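Quick check before the chapter quiz. The format below is the same one you will see on the exam, so make sure you can read both the input and the output lines.
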Amino acid sequence: MKKSFFLGIIAMLLLSFDSSAQYTRNIAIGLKLGEPIGLNIRKYFQYGDKAFDVNIGTYGFLYGKHRKYRDGPYHLKNPNGDYTASQPVGMMVQGIYSWHRPVGKGDAIKVYYGFGGQVNYRTYVAKEILTGTNQNGEKHVSLGPTGNAGIEYNLPGNDVGIFLDAGGYVEIVPDLLFMHPQVSVGVRVNIVRGK
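Here is the expected output.
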């Protein structure tokens, strides 16, 4: 399932190239720090007022280290073999379609908002596993909708942008309506220019 999901994301990005683009930004790549920590790939559409972001990174690194999940918490095994209330860091893949609007004259500062989906992969230890003899937990996949809003400042005279965005993820499967906040800062570099 993970391979087909990643291949689908890559296919969507490749099929979205438009040789008749009239804007200067086409594809950007960047790093996000916060929740998640990871890679950001952005494909711009039309005149740069719409984009599709793919984020690949951590899940549960900063927020929810001591949260309950389903019928037990996420757990991490200590070096002495005991479990604590903190969780191991999971991985996530997120796809968000967003709309962008300039602030003031020019397009040095833009605000954006968007919606999409997210898939997570993480270790979970249910109560029955925690109290039994096998306490290694189980790897599981979860998914649900996600959204965010942010602001980006494009440095004058080059292809670098600095951004701050915040949003959230609402799990649908397997834990209906489990919520997870996400806030990141980062830097993005335009690597492929349009016409």
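If your answer matched, good. Residues 14-22 have pLDDT under 50 and may be disordered.
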